[in-house]
Amino acid sequence: MKNIVILISGGGSNMAAIVHAAVRDRWAGRFDARIAAVISNQPAAGGLSLAATQGVATAAVDHKAFASRDEFDTALAAAIDVHMPTLVVLAGFMRILTPGFVGRYAGRLINIHPSLLPAFPGLRTHQRAIDAGCQVAGVTVHHVTTELDHGPILAQAAVPVLRGDTAATLAERVLAQEHRLYPRAIERWLEIEATASPEVD
Ligand code: GRF
Questions:
Q1: Deepest of 106, 118, 157, 184, by most Cβ within 10 A of its Cβ?
Q2: Which atom of ligand 1 is nearest to the CA of 14?
Q3: Is 150 a catalytic residue?
Q4: How far away, in angstroms, is 145 Cα from ligand 1 center?
Q5: CA 121: distance to chain centroid?
Q6: What is the pLDDT of residues 70-93, one digit of tens each?
Q7: Tens-digit pLDDT profile for residues 1-37
Q8: Residues near 157 by Cβ (< 8 Å), separated by ≥ 6?
Q9: Which pTM value belongs to this model?
Q10: CATH classification number, 2-196, choose in 2.170.120.30, 3.30.950.10, 1.10.10.10, 3.40.50.170
Q11: Ligand 1: which of 178, 182, 186 to mutate, judged by most atoms within 8 Å of the beta carbon?
Q12: CA-to-CA distance for 62 and 44, rounded, in angstroms?
């Protein structure tokens, strides 16, 4: 059984879409994988209670309790490693990670970003896309490297930018695609991983 750990900071709608796919949807019989835990750096994150209602183990590692990024990342890695994950999924996880943390999970740490990377890394992606006059926006799932919102692309989906769009209306259109894309990208990752390292009895 392959364990997946999801990291969140907020409402966790992407996490919920992944859990839905894993628990109730297509994973049954197709992948020997499960969502082992959802971990947040925000103890009050709405996504934690949402995950608990789905029967998924949860934990909080409050970044404010640590004096440095290194100390927080060490504690976060300890909370993750309890579950011995094959894959660590960042889903609305709003912390910059240290090179040590990224290196520890190299090749098995992925993120979703609400733009068509490499365009618009960082914050305020939707407003920046509107301000630039983009006619197309979208979402990217990518491997995490030490550079923020960079790294090899796993999957993308595009949406139109419509006349009169605000950051909020565009974000809503992109988010619907995030919920569709992220579970599929994880399924693809699991397929590739199974081919690369078949389990032996
Ligand atoms: C999503 O657009 C995600 O890509 C971004 O934060 C938004 C909310 O995510 N990083 P969620 O509802 O917490 O999954």
A1: 157
A2: 14
A3: no
A4: 19
A5: 15
A6: 999 999 999 999 999 999 999 999
A7: 899 999 999 999 999 999 999 987 667 678 889 999 9
A8: 138, 139, 177, 180, 181
A9: 0.95
A10: 3.40.50.170
A11: 178
A12: 10
